[in-house]
Design goal:
The complex is a heterotrimer. Chain A is mostly helical. Helix content of chain A is 67%, strand content 0%. Chain B starts with 13 loop residues before the first helix and ends with a helix. The relative contact order of chain B is 0.09. Chain C has one domain. In chain C, 71% of the residues lie in helices and 2% in strands. In chain C, helix 1 packs antiparallel against helix 2. Chains A and B meet through helix 1, helix 2, helix 5, helix 6 and helix 7 of A and helix 1, helix 2, helix 3 and helix 7 of B.
Chain lengths: 539, 306, 80
């Protein structure tokens, strides 16, 4: 530890330095932009790993019968694909976007707690490593589905499950620390002249998401801790012979799990609320209703968890309550969708790549939202439950919802991150390639589910063969689109045309007042009231 | 002080050390549970790294704080950070209290056929579910006390009547412990008052008293566990044992952490790090202690009484 | 009846604790005052609750929740 005087001296001298050189820059960094970059590349790597697992799943399901992998390995694939995409890809990607953008958007010099910010990233590679290492253990990786229901995950699971449990603990620490940091940044580091209702929607949605994270992640930690003691120390939380209840696991899990799905979609709403006004060249329609709708969705997300469990044992009164509460979420979500449409109404629209992704988000996410509404009807769910209809539903909201917004955000803010423009022509090819293939991939799964094909199976009855083949072809095409995506990003970073300060003429927001490639330390002096008003979405 | 710019530290090794430490700890623990020889030592190594990290990291922050590098805004960031960290702790305990309430109010009665719906099977004739039982003992099971379970003879009252052995008596240690912890809350409040009034000598006395009460609480808690284990209430004793030990165990862990933090605060008080207007370190730890105290009250009321 | 009073006091304690937290976040002399007052309230209420529970238990208004049997010596065939 340095002596007291040293700390003072270095503390001030280092203040305006640029980044360090070499690998140590990334390990020691406390800079929100560096950490954001780390998060985004980590998430991207995880997308590729999880995507490779999805390719194995779709290859196995290409034709009926068992071809490539044995059923146990297939189950490991579905489980790890889900876990990696949720905890390794989507969530870190949004934290990365938040890290990059929130301090710039609120006119702050950095995140509120920069050292902790470093830790919340640097836990992730370790957690991901432990999770992936389970593949090489005796008995293989967890194979009980990403929801790890007891007793599959307690009595009947391989030893590697304990490593999975600790990986989940670590991922939880990371998310909680990230969320605390974002709350402290938004509430304490905001430019003094910026009122809450001046904040850009991405900041608002992330603030509310942080509350969801801090409320939900500890409950997940509790659930996996109970699993751990049930497995190793003989407790009976989820064991009916000792007076516990496996259904209790599902209650605790989904009390975390339902807020979790909004954790993965609220920041996406924020991203889209930036892109659509920019390319419609109109202010966002209904700014304050957007804020209130986000808050109501967050509140409702805590009181609807058991709609995931209509078939696992609940009194009828419970089913009815959870069904009606679920229906209510459609109201604030509808407000959002109509606001985006109203923003585009009579706007002078252009269709640059981010806008294409954003518009297809609105369209495809709404499909996913409606199929969610169908699943929320308790009597209808008896037919849909645990079929491919569910798979189609949550891939429409998570791939064409969450992932879509992340890709849109990447194209939209890439100029600010790198100071370079991407290749617009190639990016459009990539968009059409992805949007067509993703629908070929997931739309037939609705039909499969309605016809009764269960999820999480390596083999299926002959009548499902055609749709599965179509779906697999779409899957391979969609997977290949990521090669092009990688090329476009690397090409932009290396050879892109220099960007201007504000590459999108309709864009509003404090981040666009910075240099084309945002300075290493932005907003050491907080922006003025005039500038904030000029750049506000709420005007 | 408030004129300065917001302090953004330059670079730091502590987080990566912390990540290595906590991963080592978890990998060691998992291997230990699977009976691997080196598990325990690796776990110890991870713990040592983690302790080293905490000393280094917090020490650096304390140093920066006493050197006046932090302005008011940094102070507020710490306040926000601490408060939401505690909220996450609240939610962690909520999961275990939720399990307690769910098992008591729903799953155990349902096992006994309550509500008479399709989810409540009839296990066997005259079986009566009771929260008090440790495991669902079948007729004919012999107990340590020599009683043979014979349900038909004790209709409707269940096991409880068969052997009413009182293993956890709320009038004994639990009541004493509640008194101790409440007293520690009172002494801490006196310390807080003394700090705000600027009486340093009194703070030290009250803080020492608080820590002593906390340690006494932990000692009695260990004794109670000993009694309970000797009388047959174990972690493996069904849902009652599970909720009882997990709730009190995590609470005890938090008391331990709180006592360590109070000791650090005691050291810092003696070093003169705090004054009447500027003592966030003290406030954060004090609030944490009050929180742990309230969790115990909840435990005392809901686990032992209601 | 006693149960309801007990639960109400617990909720009141949690509220006082919550106000203490808000005071702590606020900081400064004002926040510090608020925090201290809330914590005094919470300590007072806690002592009150403790005495109430003990007295109600003594009067027999509430029953302890701890009657236990001891563990089985042998596993019976019906118990798995």
């Amino acid at each position: 530890m340095t002596t007291a005087t040293d700390t003072t001296a270095t503390g001030h001298a280092d203040h305006h330095h640029g980044p360090e050189k070499g690998l140590m820059r990334w390990i020691k960094t406390t800079n929100h932009k560096d950490i954001g970059t780390l998060y985004l590349w980590f998430a991207f790597t995880m997308v590729l790993i999880g995507g490779a697992m999805a390719m194995v799943i779709r290859m196995e399901l290409f034709q009926p019968g068992l071809q490539l992998v044995d059923p146990h390995f297939f189950n490991q694939m579905t489980t790890m694909h889900g876990l990696i995409m949720v905890f390794g890809a989507i969530m870190p990607a949004f934290v990365g976007l938040g890290n990059w953008l929130i301090p710039m958007m609120v006119g702050a010099p950095d995140m509120a707690l920069p050292r902790m910010n470093n830790w919340s990233f640097w836990i992730l590679p370790f957690a991901g490593g432990i999770l992936l290492s389970t593949f090489f253990m005796e008995g293989g990786a967890p194979a009980f589905g990403w929801t790890f229901y007891a007793p599959l995950s307690t009595t009947f699971a391989p030893d590697s499950t304990d490593f999975f449990i600790f990986a989940v603990h670590l991922l939880g620490f990371s998310s909680i620390m990230g969320a605390i940091n974002i709350i402290a940044t938004v509430l304490n580091m905001r430019a003094p002249e910026m009122k809450l209702m001046d904040m850009p929607l991405f900041v608002w949605t992330w603030l509310i998401t942080s509350f969801l994270l801090i409320g939900a992640m500890p409950v997940l930690a509790g659930a996996v801790t109970m699993m751990l003691t049930d497995r190793n120390f003989g407790t009976a939380f989820f064991d009916a012979t000792g007076g516990g209840d496996p259904v209790m696991f599902q209650h605790i899990f989904w009390f975390f799990g339902h807020p979790e799905v909004y954790i993965m979609i609220l920041p996406a709403f924020g991203v889209v609320s930036h892109i659509i006004p920019t390319f419609a060249r109109k202010p966002l329609f209904g700014y304050s209703s957007m804020v209130y709708a986000t808050a109501s969705i967050a509140f409702l997300s805590y009181i609807v968890w058991a709609h995931h469990m209509f078939l696992t044992g609940m009194p009828v009164a419970g089913e009815l309550y959870f069904m009606y509460a679920t229906m209510m979420i459609a109201v604030p979500t509808g407000v959002k969708v109509f606001n985006w449409i109203a923003t585009m109404w009579k706007g002078s629209m252009t269709f640059e790549t981010p806008m294409l992704w954003a518009i297809s988000f609105v369209f495809l996410f709404t499909i996913g939202g409606f199929s969610g509404l169908m699943l929320g009807i308790a009597p209808a769910d008896i037919q849909y439950h645990d079929t491919y209809f569910v798979v189609a539903h949550f891939h429409y909201v998570l791939v064409t919802g969450a992932l879509w917004s992340i890709i849109a955000a990447t194209f939209y803010w890439l100029p600010k991150w790198t100071g370079k423009m991407y290749n617009e022509g190639l990016a459009k090819v990539h968009f059409w390639w992805a949007v067509i293939s993703v629908n070929v991939l997931f739309f037939p799964q609705h039909f499969l589910g309605l016809a009764g094909m269960p999820r999480r199976i390596p083999d299926y009855a002959l009548q499902f063969a055609d749709f599965n083949m179509i779906s697999s072809i779409g899957g391979f095409a969609f997977g290949a689109s990521f090669i092009l995506f990688t090329y476009i990003i690397i090409d932009a970073i290396r050879n892109g045309e220099p960007a201007t300060k504000r590459p999108w003429e309709g864009a509003k927001g404090l981040e666009w007042t910075l240099d084309p490639k945002a300075e290493y330390h932005s907003f050491n002096k907080p922006p003025s009231r005039k500038l904030i008003e000029q750049e506000s979405q709420n005007s | 002080m408030s004129e300065q710019e917001y302090y953004v530290p330059h670079g730091t090794y502590w987080p990566i050390i912390g990540s290595i430490g906590i991963s080592t700890l978890f990998i060691g623990l998992a291997n230990q549970m699977h009976g691997v020889e080196w598990g325990g030592s690796v776990m110890g190594l991870g713990f040592a790294i983690l302790v080293f990290m905490m000393f280094g990291w917090f020490g650096q922050v304390v140093n920066e704080s006493t050197n006046g590098i932090y302005n008011k805004q940094v102070d507020r960031s710490f306040r926000w950070g601490m408060s939401w960290f505690i909220f996450s702790e609240v939610m962690f305990f909520a999961a275990f209290f939720g399990a307690l309430f769910y098992a008591r109010a729903l799953s155990v009665p349902w096992l006994g056929g309550a509500d008479n719906n399709i989810f409540t099977p009839d296990l066997w004739n005259a079986f009566s579910a009771s929260w008090h039982q440790m495991a669902f003992l079948a007729p004919g099971t012999e107990l340590q006390s020599g009683t043979v379970m014979s349900f038909p003879e004790v209709p409707a009252t269940g096991i409880e009547t068969a052997t009413p052995a009182m293993v956890v008596d709320p009038w004994g240690l639990p009541a004493l412990n509640t008194g101790l912890l409440l007293a520690s809350g009172v002494t801490l409040t006196f310390a807080h008052h003394a700090l705000r009034a600027g009486h340093r000598n009194q703070i030290v006395g009250w803080l020492v008293a608080t820590i002593a009460l906390g340690v006494a609480f932990l000692g009695f808690q260990v004794m109670e566990y000993g009694h309970a284990y000797a009388d047959g209430l174990k972690l493996t004793s069904g849902i009652y044992g599970s909720t009882f030990y997990m709730l009190t165990g995590f609470h005890g862990f938090h008391v331990t952490v709180g006592a360590i933090m109070l000791t650090v605060i005691l050291y810092r008080v003696q070093k003169g790090h705090f004054d009447a207007d500027n003592h966030f370190g003290f406030e954060g730890v004090a609030w944490y202690w009050h929180f742990v105290d309230v969790v115990w009250l909840g435990l005392f009321v809901f686990v032992y009484w209601l | 009846m006693t149960e309801i009073v007990v639960v109400i006091i617990i909720v009141a304690i949690l509220v006082a604790l919550g106000f203490g937290l808000i005071g702590m976040v606020k900081g400064g002399r004002e926040g510090s005052d608020k925090m201290f007052k809330s914590l005094v309230t919470r300590v007072t209420l806690s002592v009150l609750l403790f005495l109430l529970v003990l007295f109600s238990g003594y009067m027999g208004w509430i029953e302890p929740n701890v009657v236990m049997v001891d563990a089985p010596v042998a596993q019976s065939p019906a118990q798995k």
